[in-house]
Structures are given as structure tokens and as C-alpha cells.
Amino acid sequence: MCREEAAELSSLKPQLDKLGVPLYAVVKEDVGTEVQNFRPYFKGEIFLDEKRRFYGPRERKMGLLAFMRLGVWLSGVRAFRKGFIGNVLGEGFVLGGVFVIGRGKQGILLEHREKEFGDKVNISDVLQAVRKIPQ
Prior knowledge:
GO terms for molecular function: antioxidant activity. The chain is α+β, with helices and mostly antiparallel strands.
């Protein structure tokens, strides 16, 4: 489901470029060709954080019980219907997030942390936060 969100964020790339705001992804592992397979969905630069420092002192995870949640199933079906097939390699239980980080002392302008797999950021919220960054 992260591929679906990556594609949606990448759809903002022309607007981000116009505003001078880069698009980055931070991934925790590169099993096999995982990052290479992710690149068609994400139009920004991808950083590998093998030490998982970006994920903070306590990683947020969902265990196998996540698959008992209706929201996770609905998100999976939604992504599948849009043609997104996820990978099943690697660890796979760490929840992701989206951050818009401003310039200088602006700090974090938007923070979206997945509550469950498939809990995507609202793209209009991303644009609204990006527009707060001075050019």
C-alpha cells in the first residue's frame, strides 16, 4: 500500500518543483530489488536508512493482528483495484508516515503517521503545508 501513497505523492512533483520543494522517501531496507521496484511509483530521491534512525527511538509496528482490522483489508482492496501490488519481502510491520519539513526554523509543518497499514496522508493537506514554505 506504500506504493499507492508514493504514486499519489509523486503526482505532486510538478507543483513541488515549481515551489522549490524536494520530494524524498526514507526506506528501512532494500531486500533484493525492493527499492529498484519502488522507483517507478516514487518520483523523488530515495534514501536507505539501514540503522533506522529516521524511524525514531521506538519504531511503530503492527503485528499479525493487523490483518484482523477491517481498515487494513479495505485499504488493501482499494490499492489492488487501483493496480498496486505490494511486495511481501522484508520485515513489513513498521508503520510509515509522511512529513512536510519547512526551511530553517519552520520545523515540521505536517506530520502524518500511519495508524494502520494503508492509512494514507491527505494530499491536499500536503499541498497546504508545502505552500507555507517560503520560496
